[in-house]
Amino acid sequence: MVGVNKRQVRVGMIGYKFMGKAHSNGYRNLPYFFDTPAVPVLQAIAGRDEQGVKAAAETMGWASYETDWRRLLERDDIDVIDIVTPNNVHAEMAIAAAEAGKHVLCEKPLAMTVEQAKRMVDAVKKAGVVHMICHNYRFAPAVQFAKKLIEEGRLGKIYHIRAQYLQDWIMDPKFPLVWRLRKEVTGSGAHGDIAAHILDLARFLVGEFSEVVGMMETFIKERPLGEMTGGLNASANSGKMGQVDVDDCSAFLARFENGAVGVFEATRFAAGNRNGNRFEINGEKGSIRWDLENMNNLQVYLTDDEPGLQGFRTINCTEEHHPYAGAYWPAGHIIGYEHTFINLMKEFMEGIVNGTSPAPNFEDGYRNQLVLASVEKSVETGSWVKISEVDPS
Amino acid sequence: MVGVNKRQVRVGMIGYKFMGKAHSNGYRNLPYFFDTPAVPVLQAIAGRDEQGVKAAAETMGWASYETDWRRLLERDDIDVIDIVTPNNVHAEMAIAAAEAGKHVLCEKPLAMTVEQAKRMVDAVKKAGVVHMICHNYRFAPAVQFAKKLIEEGRLGKIYHIRAQYLQDWIMDPKFPLVWRLRKEVTGSGAHGDIAAHILDLARFLVGEFSEVVGMMETFIKERPLGEMTGGLNASANSGKMGQVDVDDCSAFLARFENGAVGVFEATRFAAGNRNGNRFEINGEKGSIRWDLENMNNLQVYLTDDEPGLQGFRTINCTEEHHPYAGAYWPAGHIIGYEHTFINLMKEFMEGIVNGTSPAPNFEDGYRNQLVLASVEKSVETGSWVKISEVDPS
Amino acid sequence: MVGVNKRQVRVGMIGYKFMGKAHSNGYRNLPYFFDTPAVPVLQAIAGRDEQGVKAAAETMGWASYETDWRRLLERDDIDVIDIVTPNNVHAEMAIAAAEAGKHVLCEKPLAMTVEQAKRMVDAVKKAGVVHMICHNYRFAPAVQFAKKLIEEGRLGKIYHIRAQYLQDWIMDPKFPLVWRLRKEVTGSGAHGDIAAHILDLARFLVGEFSEVVGMMETFIKERPLGEMTGGLNASANSGKMGQVDVDDCSAFLARFENGAVGVFEATRFAAGNRNGNRFEINGEKGSIRWDLENMNNLQVYLTDDEPGLQGFRTINCTEEHHPYAGAYWPAGHIIGYEHTFINLMKEFMEGIVNGTSPAPNFEDGYRNQLVLASVEKSVETGSWVKISEVDPS
Amino acid sequence: MVGVNKRQVRVGMIGYKFMGKAHSNGYRNLPYFFDTPAVPVLQAIAGRDEQGVKAAAETMGWASYETDWRRLLERDDIDVIDIVTPNNVHAEMAIAAAEAGKHVLCEKPLAMTVEQAKRMVDAVKKAGVVHMICHNYRFAPAVQFAKKLIEEGRLGKIYHIRAQYLQDWIMDPKFPLVWRLRKEVTGSGAHGDIAAHILDLARFLVGEFSEVVGMMETFIKERPLGEMTGGLNASANSGKMGQVDVDDCSAFLARFENGAVGVFEATRFAAGNRNGNRFEINGEKGSIRWDLENMNNLQVYLTDDEPGLQGFRTINCTEEHHPYAGAYWPAGHIIGYEHTFINLMKEFMEGIVNGTSPAPNFEDGYRNQLVLASVEKSVETGSWVKISEVDPS
Questions:
Q1: What mean pLDDT is predicted for residues C303-315?
Q2: Dist. CA C183–CA C192, nearest whole Å
Q3: How far apart are the C-alpha atoms of B9 and B7, rounded to whole Å?
Q4: Which of A53, B75, C109, D293 can bridge A47 by disulfide, Cβ–Cβ 3.0-4.6 Å?
Q5: Which residues are in the GFO/IDH/MocA-like oxidoreductase domain (chains A, B, C, D) (predicted)?
């Protein structure tokens, strides 16, 4: 067995749909590619529907299952609680996990509200457990390489970031009113789901936000009731209609503490953009561009390139020179979406061994929540909102 | 001589730098490619510096020159006044031209203020002359083809536009404080110069704006004094420094009257983007993308394409099926920046013959000015501004 | 355990370097993504160096190891022999495996010579075992989708294929003379290694070759002796130099039985092309383009698209409509190089259950070998060579 | 009038269809963009059909016309003969022009045969006139910049060129049998028409060919009779059918005198490729890529770029650092197909003033003809042909 002589980190995961599949796969594959000081064990999975959770455990390779997530907290053969549930239960679960002394990995967004997020941070800190939030896109090698270039000062002072997360999976008015479109379960629509990713990338690469002004819109206001069926698919479960009470799109302007300005847009109504998570950052000495649909590449422009020879370089970040990439395949042999989770889990395992909480951790989740909340407040007031206005800490 | 037997439209142009070269070239080439009912004659050019204007007349093929632009108005061998001067004199010149019974083509932005723009519209209407504003990018075949697709309903109801005009020509802090960076001459920086273009494209393709909220920033606040030397080049003319009082970048969120939402950004600080005028429009039945740096192509996505075969099509708009393209070369033989002016001037000549003012005309210029002013007001107030708030009419 | 109640197919693998890692990973991940009627078990791995093979077994998750590959044939807990060794031992191993009644998966190229390949085909047929050759690139979803389009007649009669496999990993003259550059071990250079892949894709997508004329070149004729160290890396092991006796590049023109013509090129000296496996196919009704470095995308052009709207569509083959893609992640969430092996192994497992040998099998390997040999003969003679000339069967 | 005080070079052009339009446009625009020591005057145009040539003269701005091309030679107000006729009359006209003491610009390919080409070279040399052949694609700024990089040694020793000229304008079997498809008029099909361009680019950028082996095919063997109607359009003029006796495609492998190898392909049957003239050159220190459909860009890869930051740079060759580009518009404002002719004519005018024949001149046309003929001979013999074998000189 791979990693059989290493420290075993026994994971208990709550939830088992799209993100459950991605996380399980990440844990399974981590020891194959990375020589981490500890390896994850797929110990137990929890879900309310016994038939469903049992089948998921089998399909995804978990050793046992529970129908009550609180049972995972009681088991002493569980070291980590991994929360891949809808957003409205993140806080309750994460706090309980911390109080039970378990390390916690939580899906994004961290919480429904700033207040919840604050309590989650307090709980993990008080308990002294290791915590991370699963902003997996930070862990594309090209994104990590972008971070490295920025930290080395290769772009100089940052002037601009423009970031878009464009999807189109709910454009059909017949697409049902699943949990991801119900405010009481998800908190918000595209905003918390995908704007959260791009603002997290902005915080990672550019720095802290200082103020924002935003806009949201719901294009399809009524939909048939229904359920997610796996991945991002869904089916209507009756002829009944319900009101959509979350945003179909969210956009905002931003200023950062370091003087940079940003333009952000997230939508599920950009026809033809299946998963277009894109950003461009412009600094005084260069620029970078990234697009998730071509995630192995980073476009880099450097102003100190020789005149006449200046242009964006298309760098295939699959070389040993690029973060994480050396663990996989030879240069030019690309990796995919799922590997971002493996890379994140590498950091998580090392954090557990070292007793530190690698970024993005609950503090990042909290700071992201402040930005989400500031935009929401701005949408209500129609004016700019300073991040500090919504920060109770 | 090409077009020698056609109606001659005698042009008098005020100014002769970058735009003067582009306009002169447009007039010269129009009869070669299009069989218009009237052809432009490069009759006279005006500029204050005799040596400069004389040389320009010779280089660009104008039959005569004047050192006082008002002389052009007095000459009865001039039918059209073409204004390619800095923005602060557009209003005075255009109004005088209209009063002198001359047709008018004016560079963008139309004016320094809404009030000026209003007076300009009133003047051309009162005089009954034909008028256009030179938003040349509307006349790229790919943009015109986009318009056609939208008008035919191929994209359905429009949800989104995101447009960026990204340049980098003043990033060097040593780039001098030319007229394009001085508020008293230009009115604003990137905002009136290039944001004006993308909001004009949005009005052309999506519809009228209803409200906006914006942000501006000046990254380099002090520069050496200097002058434009041709194209977008400049040279410092002394060691003295001056304050930059216009924006280096401008960004704004927008709502349109038809329910669409928009995200706009214009900057001269996006390293590596020499002339990145780009937009993407998403509708309920499809999407389009365009980029000036690859201006012959239009990307088109149609939701009613067969499942599995859906994807953005890269359409090289050089076929007889594409507006204006049939006048040039066989399919796949691309045209360039300068041809957008030729196409615009085709419309202008036809307008003069027909006695109509083709879009974009001074009305468009005025409506664009309202959007520019609304963003400016929003930057002052920190809140959303309705277009109607700044519209005195 | 995933797939624990299914038929277990116990694999014994010979070799454990780059391809060993890719195959092991494929077996490990197959049951996670596909619900196949049988699942592979990583039973035993063989290699001459005990320390090396033991470490590999542990790292890659194999249950046991052997230092003599013939031991695998003797073990009755082994159902499949997977050969990932250098080319000069493929024939001996595959024939022995077949004679021992084991199913066989063999890396490409099948053999050193047509004669060897012939004996291999005869052996697997005589033994009645299931056999495949590991041309994994057939199994990119975009390539499979291309195949589907062609079979449905969407491209009509095929006129052209142009295919290139461009790499640059041995351009440095200091890169050592590893086994992949020694004729006695590998048979040929870029020719058998990567030209083999593109001609296999051509046979898959276009049809059988009828005649070829080719060219080879060795740019760096002497190199320091050394060894592969993993992936496509290597290190020199002494100051001694050796003669390179294989081709650095191979190119050939081809005619197909169905009247199509082809142009092929494989090289390891195309600076900047890390792994550029590309093809374009033109038919009477459309064209397709594919590039491994962006392997999730297929470019498709259809002549019956509406005039004016004709252009290559960029199709991200990550939807349930695309072969294999539905087993992974939602649309727009890309997969990578390694998943081509998983897809191939899905077919292999099903073949074993069904008693059939899915393409590409040893017959394909043999036919590919005929093309390789015909090009080699053509290089010697300087003239066109018919495939039938080198085919002893 | 532009350039009115400069030396006037009075042009007499024979032919007035697609190339006539492109050449006329080039002459007309040259003085507007370049300050050459001499300027072309559109003095007279010749064609057999009086109505047609008269209309063409008017449309394209020629001062007079002739219905017998030999009249141009007799006129002493003509300095240059520009030949834009079908290929079968190039030799007769060029030789007569030279004998009449006229400078000559001739469309490509230079001749129908090597023997004709030889006599043409002899004639211009004997007469001491200035001569050029119109391989306009050499004069794209990106191609000239590529040349500069190669000459500076930026790519080091050249290993590879692969070049394709892919079109699709005659794929429809109903497209008529125009002169471009009739051997007696054109000599060959795609071979002399577009393969000629890419082999000229190869000679320009890589060096002289030493040997070739080729293949040709005619996919549609019978077509309705008809005529070109302008550009690359045509119409059938009766229900009668005729045999196509030229190639629809041509492909060949090549070796160069400097040790480089090349792969070339030209076809008019590559659906979706309207005008895909593309090449990639790989050298020991870098690579370049160019594509006519995006002709302003050059992709450049340099092996001495910092590890991790290596990738193809997309250079928009519209800066003053790029050959010819400074004469047009600011950086990022692209030029098009027609400007390649303007740039070529700049060289031609300078050549006339200096008494030299800038490359590509008739010597280049002759050397190109040798390559064309070698490929043709190779198609007949089925074997490699050395260029020297077909060279009578």
A1: 97
A2: 10
A3: 6
A4: A53
A5: 144-289
Say whether pLDDT at A288 is over 70: yes
- Contact C319/B at CB under 8 A: yes
Phi first, then psi: give them for residue B62, nearest 5 degrees. -90, 145
| Segments of chain B scoring below 50 in pLDDT | 1
Centroid of chain to Cα C100: 24
CA atoms of A346 and D333, how far apart (whole Å): 47
Give the homologous superfamily in CATH for domain A140-358+369-380.
Answer: Dihydrodipicolinate Reductase; domain 2 (3.30.360.10)
C332 — pLDDT class (breaks 50, 70, 90)? very high
Q: What is the CATH number of domain C7-137?
A: 3.40.50.720
Other beta carbons less than 10 A from residue D341's beta carbon: 22
Question: Which chains border C (3 or more CB–CB pairs < 8 Å)?
Answer: A, B, D
Q: Which pair of structure tokens corresponds to residue A124?
A: 């993990």
Per-residue pLDDT for A179 more than 90? no
- Looking at every residue in chain A, the average pLDDT score rounds to 96
Contact call for D315 and A311, based on CB within 8 A: yes
pLDDT of residue C179: 86
Residue C128 burial (CB count, 10 A): 10
Asked if A384 lies within 8 A of B383 by C-beta distance, the reply is yes
Give residue-wise pLDDT tens across range C20-59: 999 999 999 999 999 999 999 999 999 999 999 999 999 9
Q: Are residues A300 and D311, on separate chains, in Cβ contact within 8 Å?
A: yes
Cβ-defined contact of A339 to C339 (cutoff 8 Å): no
Tell me the shortest Cα–Cα distance from C230 to chain B, in angstroms: 37
Pull the structure tokens for residue A210. 């200082």
For chain D, give every domain's residue range.
7-137, 140-359+369-380
How many cross-chain Cβ pairs, C to D, lie less than 8 Å apart?
118
| Residue in C with minimal Cα distance to A277 | C332
ipTM > 0.95 for the complex: yes
Arithmetic mean of pLDDT, C351-355? 97
pLDDT attached to residue C183? 93
pLDDT (0 to 100) of residue B144: 98
CA distances (Å), origin D11, targets B161, D34, D44, D127: 51, 18, 7, 18
Q: How many CA atoms lie within 13 A of C182 on its CB side?
A: 16
> Largest Cα–Cα distance of chain A, in whole Å?
66
Closest Cα in chain D, distance from residue B153 (Å): 26
Domain spanning C139-359+369-380: CATH 3.30.360.10: yes
Does residue A105 contact residue A99 with C-beta atoms inside 8 Å?
A: no
Assigned token pair, D179: 């002169």
Q: What is the pLDDT of residues C64-84, one digit of tens each?
A: 999 999 999 999 999 999 999
A81: Cβ contacts below 8 Å, ≥ 6 apart: A11, A12, A13, A14, A72, A73, A93, A94, A97, A100, A102, A103, A104, A105
* Percent of chain A residues past pLDDT 90, beyond the cut: 94
Taking an 8 Å cut-off on Cβ atoms, the answer to whether C1 and A61 are in contact is yes
The tokens describing C247, both together, are 């081709």
Distance from the C281 Cα atom to the nearest Cα atom in chain B, whole angstroms: 17
With a CB cutoff of 8 Å and minimum separation 6, the contacts of B199 are: B163, B209, B264, B368, B371, B372
Q: Does domain B141-358+369-379 have CATH number 3.30.360.10?
A: yes
CA of B314: which chain D residue's CA is closest?
D272
For the four alpha carbons of A350, A352, A355 and A359, in that order, the dihedral sign comes to positive
> What is the count of residue pairs from B and C with beta carbons less than 8 Å apart?
47
d(C-alpha C369, C-alpha C114), whole Å: 6
Q: Which CATH class is domain D140-359+369-380?
A: alpha beta
Q: Which of C308, C312, C321 sits opposite B322 (nearest CB)?
A: C308
Neighbour-count burial for A57-83, b at 16+ CB within 10 Å, e otherwise: bbbbbbebbbeebeebbeeeebbbbbb
